[in-house]
Amino acid sequence: MKHYLFVHFRETTSPEGEQVYFALSRDGFHWEALNDGNPILWAYYGDHGVRDMTILRDRHTGLFHIFATDLSLSYGMRGKYQHAWENIRRHGSSALAHWTSSDLVHWSEEELVELGKGQFGCLWAPDIIEDRERGDYLLHWSSSTVSDDFGPMAIYGCHTKDFVTYSEPQLIYRRSEGAVIDSTMVAEGGRYYLFVKSERNPEGILLLVGDRADGPFTPVEGFGNSSLSIESGMYEAPTTLRTEDGRVCLFLDYYGVRGAGQGYVPFVADSLAKANFVRSDAAFSFPYGFKHGTILEITGEEYDRMKAHDWRDVPDNR
């Protein structure tokens, strides 16, 4: 049986929501929160809050890595960003928050990984994928750049073998029609599938495919005809898992309402190549509104270890 870990945050108006939360599942369909639904990791540096988490198991070292956007709306919108998203795009953090663990229970202290040497605005929504052709990992995110006076955001990335040193950032994907954000990449059948949120023309989730992790990418035929076209502009933050029977489950973060009604909605397809996604709410259950995160397949032993751990020893922000 497959087991899964969901690493995410919660959309609240207070700072504890913008921290790192864990949820577990034995099947990818039914989820339960760890630590009684309280944060597992706290952000003590940068903006003192994090969003848009991603997690990866390093196949070479066995270490787990979490990266996240270094951003707190709870603090920042009331302070240095002066209630303006444009100020975040231009002047937000040029670093990603990063934690490591060897067992998913004991985690390093947060560090801030600076990327881009001042060429970007805020680094949004990181994701990681193994680049099998290069034998390393591609860390990618969405940003606007100084070079075009912080015009529409695009997807950028850099390569790393050790999560200590990183290559110079490169452009991964851009649309002339408008900004793209919230990239997630999945390998299937020797190809790389890239989900992004398009901000306009159209406003919604796009699925693209390429032969290399750093592109070029072209649209997947038929994806726009699936049930994902419903409520255009209401979904973001894609993440996926592979079910026990080999299907692909795409989770999209629904933000069409305020407060507790927000959270992930599942869509299931036979494969990424077919992209025949069907909304499947009835088969899934969540304890509360999960916000922008990533799902990692874990072992039964790792699942049991996390379930058995007393998470009350997690330090809080006081």
Word description of this protein:
- By secondary structure, the protein is mainly β.
- Helices cover 6% and strands 40% of the residues.
- The chain is built from 3 helices and 20 strands.
- It has helices at 73-76, 85-91, 300-308, and strands at residues 3-9, 21-25, 32-33, 50-57, 64-70, 95-101, 111-114, 124-131, 136-143, 154-160, 170-173, 180-188, 191-199, 203-210, 218-219, 235-242, 248-254, 263-269, 278-279, 291-298.
- A hairpin with a 2-residue loop joins strand 12 and strand 13.
- The longest helix is centred in the last third of the chain and has 9 residues, at 300-308.
- The radius of gyration is 18 Å and the shape is globular.
- The mean pLDDT is 91.
Brief characterization of the structure:
By secondary structure, the chain is mostly beta strands.
